[in-house]
From TrEMBL:
InterPro entries: Znf_MYND, Znf_RING-CH, Znf_RING/FYVE/PHD. It comes from Fistulifera solaris. Keywords: Membrane, Metal-binding, Transmembrane, Transmembrane helix, Zinc, Zinc-finger. Residues 250-272 have a biased composition (Polar residues). Residues 152-177, 232-289, 690-718 are annotated as: Disordered. Residues 232-245 have a biased composition (Acidic residues). This is RING-CH-type domain-containing protein. The lineage of its organism: Eukaryota, Sar, Stramenopiles, Ochrophyta, Bacillariophyta. The keyword Zinc applies. Signal peptide: none annotated.
Amino acid sequence: MPVYLCHPGENDPEPWRYGLQVFAAPCKIDDNAPSSTASVGGGTDLIVADWADDEDVKQRNENIQVTKAVGRGTRPSISSQVVRRVRHAELLLVDDVCLAYDRFWLRLRWPGRKGGFAGYIAMGLVSEASRIFSSHVIDSHIPGVLAAEDRASGDDLDHDDNREETGSMPPSEPSEITSLVCSRTGLLFPSSPVMKLLAHYDDGLSPPVALAPNPSDSVFCRICREGLHDDADDELPAAADDDADIDRTGSGSLPQSGSETGSVDVGQSSPSDPKAPESPHPSYGSNHDAMQNPMLAPCECSGSMAFVHYLCVEQWRCRSRHPDAQDGLNCETCGARYALPPAEREVHVPHVDQDQDDWLEAMPPHVMQALRQPHIWWQMGAAIVRRRWLRPIAPVIMSPIVALYCRARRLLKKRGVARRRWACSLCRRRARWKCVRCLRSYYCSRQCQNVSWHIIHKHVCYKPVRFWWSVLVYSIVGLLLFPGFRRDPLVYDLGLMAVPMSFVVAGILGGSAGILIKKALGIDARGRLLELTVVLVTIFLSFVTWGLIQSFFGNPNACVGAIGAYDITASDLPSTSSMLRWFQILILKPMKTFYLVVDKGCSQYLGTWGKRLLCDDRSLLHFFPWDGEDEYTYYKVGCFEHIPFANENFFLKEHGGEKCAGDLVMVLSLYHLAAVSFIISTLAKHEERRQRRERMERRLPRQGRAVVRRPGQHAHQD
């Protein structure tokens, strides 16, 4: 489909202040209004002030004529039809050209394979000469020549500061023959100084337009090397917290189909006219991702260097140290000044807040500072994603590690171990929101999320395909590092589960210890030291637990003996012996029965290929000492290597389990202590919330609020 370049402020010293208004549907535009100026082709272009106070906007809207829709009464003004604005040097996709109200209208399309309707842009009035010319080209099938970029000076345009154009007008009698013809309406795609048709470029997705030659150049970013549709296909996820930004158009959401805005009179073009807009009009849906990071042509570079994403070029300008760049004002390749706001700027227009300017909103000062002096993790991430061959590999390897780290940090924060707050992934300020898709990347503002997403995070954010690739990669790595995992997957799974369980226990104990220290000594023990202590306790507890698991499956020498040997039969602590006995009855015996049943079932029902993959050949014929004799009796056992040796009495003295008994007592004691601490802390927090809620209710004035009484609750008299 045709690619257009928005160039309304080409001859202005600050072209980035200009833009074109986009309408939800074609509407009547009064060319005699005071806010309109003459155009190059004999018509007029409506120019509305970009930054104006409310009185100025009201006066302009009163001078705009409105039409009446059939059976709908008076239609809203033009301002109610404006849904957004496109900025200077922005690239646009056009999939249709039509006639309505004696004017050309370009129907825009959002980039991306699923891009939808993006609004209409009003072009110039249609003269009789242009009608005859268009009919002559279509009837005679003149191939024409490619439409070169119009180099008109645009002296007839009003170039006052802070202007925004609602549309650009092609000449009444086209001076150049364009080869792009709309297949639906048969109209030529018009071009003008402020809406240039780039016929030399292909959008890279749609089939060729009728009568168009083979395109030679594709549209892609010269920095990240992504095409026009590649970046749009990666949808920016919303923030996990309430992070609803006001739409920069300021017009709010549009009415649904069937409302006054959805039913539009096409003026002098009847619905049956093939050159009229499609009826009914498609409903407009905003695409924040495309509006926040559009594809631009900000300088005079051409060919493969012509286009660049807005956020990519802003990052480049912040980091560029080339002498020709002049602190990011000029392109270091062609030497031309960027058609973008300067990197360091202040809002100097009255009645305009920083959040009301779309350029300033996209790059606030703290984002610019973060791009000039990025932290080490950001530099590493940017260096990885700049290499295209690393982009599919890095998230597969790093996503599980980052996910485990984030979950561990949240647990420590929740249990009262960590005091550090989450830092923004870009600027390292205090973060308030996180990515709702992966819950791993934190941001201080929507602007930081936009920049981080388009530069780094979209390449590493969670996706189902990346998750399954991570599972596959780490499974292969685990099999290579631990060959026994294939022979005894259930045993190693049990050992793997011991790590998060040990971390949870250590976190609960660490948080409880921090609370006790604060209440007893008045010292806030939360911080890195307590976090490090929890990590060390987790490692130690996991190591001891893995030794107990190995001892349970027939290797009593694997026990660590952290607190020494312990003989349960000669114990002077009957409570400890009773705890081990109950643990043996309730946990160890059912576990042994379960694992032996699974082992026997796998040996009988897996089949040939299953046995070759999982079963150990040595486990099919083992030898064991029988009745204490030196001779060995051979008999057939199950599928796996160590499961047949499961023994619920591994911690008894007759099995050489004195060390195992001591380790088991220590581990069970820590687990019981963590459970009691968790229950006490939960009840204490619940009581604190209840007391806080009662204090807040007592502070509220009794006048003007309803008192809700629970069943059985009596009114309180002061």
